[in-house]
Amino acid sequence: MEPKPILAMVIPCCNEEAILPETAKQLKTILDNLISQEEIDGNSKIIFIDDGSKDNTWETITNLSEGNSIFSGIRFSRNFGHQNALLAGLMKAREFADASITIDADLQQDVSAIPEFLKKYKEGNDVVLGVRKERTADSFLKKLTGNFFYGMMKFMGVDIIPNHADYRLLSKKALDILSQYEETNLFLRALILKIGLKSTTLIYEQHERTAGETKYSFIKMLKFALIGITSFSTYPINLIFYFGCIILIVCAIAILNFIYEYLMGYTVPGWPTILVSIWFFGGVQLISIGIIGIYIGKIYNETKRRPKFIKESDIGFNNIKNK
Length: 323
Ligand code: UDP
Ligand code: MG
Description:
The protein has 2 domains: 7-217 and 307-315, Spore Coat Polysaccharide Biosynthesis Protein SpsA, Chain A; 235-304. Helices cover 48% and strands 13% of the residues. It contains 10 helices and 7 strands. It has a 7-stranded mixed β-sheet, with helices on both faces. Strand 1, helix 1 (20-36) and strand 2 form a beta-alpha-beta unit. Magnesium ion binds next to loops.
């Protein structure tokens, strides 16, 4: 019989005291079932990451953990953000688990999909990305900004899966690769796609938040979108360069037009010189800034020190003696 995998559930929590007991109950029921069905190992764990909560989130986690060894927790000294909370939980899970599933604390993502994630993992997938079915549970503004965000990301050349948030399964192998990315501006949903390995998606139902309120204000969402774009694309810099080129082209057309007007004999004195100088230097300045920007973009990409390649496995080197 195959060894049962150890599963880790990773749950970031920021001021979630209102919902945490219910979340813990539901997750425990699911894991208990999976353990009794011998689908997962009895040492599987639920890890809560308290991301600088100001309410009783940590006390709740402590009580849960003292009551049952399936619960564990990590407490941040202050708020470091959702993405860092996820990473902290995942890096802890990497120490002992074969597979880890990240899920929000608010039960918006359908917990009954957990066994399906596990099934896809057992079918050989190292990455299983949860994709939200419909955004009916979200407000009009959230839907609109969400769609605009995905559109912008796509336009900027960022590889992203629409409606995939942070409900996903990652195998130990995937986490080993993730740990090679040292960047501080974390945007996991795009970074995960750089891992490679065998991946698949899984469609799940999105519910409404039943308790507490969203921790993503409009400003926080905007900041998050900016991190997503600027961490994965230097396209905005190229836009400056292109814009400068367009202005120079407009300038050239203006020059041709003024020559034509001169030949036809109706030039306004002084006007062509002023207009052409403004457009010409405007264009030259934008192109210069764009060029400097492109170099800065390259420096930025270098500083991220992302792995140049990721080896999944190798074969046929056993009989080689290393020099
Ligand atoms: N969260 C966090 N740190 C933050 C903001 C959010 O750990 O600074 C957690 C939050 O507790 C929840 C998850 O991230 O478990 C998603 O947040 P939320 O449900 O408020 O976002 P929404 O679903 O409204 O986009
Ligand atoms: Mg939520």
